[in-house]
Amino acid sequence: MTSRLLLGLLAAGALTAAPLLDPNLTEFPSSSLVDFGARLDSPGGFLTVDERGRFVWPDGRRARFWGINVAAESVFQPPERIDTCIARIREAGFNLVRLHHIDDRERGILAGDGPGVEFDPARLRLLDYWVDRLGAAGISIYLDLLDYRWFDTGRLGRAAKPYAVFDPELIARQQEYARALLREHRNAFNGRAYADDPAIVLLELFDENGLFIRRADWPNLLEPYRSDLTARWNRYLLQRYGSSEGLAAAWARSGVAQPLPAGQLCEEGTVPL
Predict the structure, then answer these.
(1) Are 240 and 172 within one domain?
(2) CA distances from 59 to 44, 46, 135, 247 (A)
(3) Using one digit for the tens of pLDDT, what is the confidence trace for 43-85?
(4) Is residue 263 part of a domain?
(5) Which of 16, 46, 77, 130 has its CA 20 to 30 A from that of 62?
(6) What is the total count of domains within the chain?
(7) Could you tell me if 251 and 155 lie in one domain?
């Protein structure tokens, strides 16, 4: 098409709604007129860490990632839409996709309300498809484990924050889920366990969770979790400092004005969180 003809069509309004001129008119617009997919390096094996703590591939090349989230309902789309999304992601030059918010019982791969691990077969198959096709496209995968899961009655809230970080039973439940998903399950499209798939390079144990990012919640923790954590805390202090006197001396050296107020003794489990 000559520039004169193109200008003529524009003047006539013939192309004003064409995706050629406005890619956003398409459902999955290209991010650029340039296809950056050809610049992606094939991972070529499992991601490792060198002696300096840097991500490297088996051949010694540094691994660097530029990634994007695909979350919740966006994961569970028909295969043809997934194919289109992966093509656009690759064209944009992304070499990492984070599959996020997949563990909801109503909108994710989990099914049933019991304490065990039961997967929704159809949704798990769609997750398998993402993993298989991303790997085939040379795109690495960052997989979340605990994002949206509600444990039993749900009184602990979504993802049991921050209880899932320290409670032994909740940790065991997370380990059970991880074993079922990463080791016992086989990808419906390539036959590999997720744990054996080099395309999966990163795992996130839990999303936006932790004791220290929720420090203000400690006084309001539900029972029996608050008492259990307090007991663990006092056992740790006793093991580290040997006695309440040793604890008070160490904290005083750190500049704490009143290290242990009256009645707070780690031997008796009364040092608060």
Answers:
(1) no
(2) 8, 10, 18, 50
(3) 778 999 999 999 999 988 999 999 999 999 999 999 999 999 9
(4) yes
(5) 130
(6) 2
(7) no
